[in-house]
Amino acid sequence: MSHRKAIYCQALAAILFSTSGLLIKVITVEPLPLLGVRGAFAALTIALYMARPLLQSARRDASDSPRSRHPKPRLKFRLTLPMLGGAISLVCAQAFFIIAVRETTAANAIFLQYTAPIFVAFFGIHYLREPVGKLDWLALATVGVGLLCFYGDGLTTGGALGNLFGLLAGLAFAWFLLFMRKQKDTSTIETVLLGNVLSALLGLPFLIGAAPSAADWLGMLFLGIFQIGIPSILIAVAIKKLTAVEAILIQTLEPVLNPVWVLLVIGEMPTSLALLGGAIVVGAVTFRSIFSIRTPPAEPASQPTA
Question: Is residue 64 part of a domain?
Answer without folding.
Answer: no
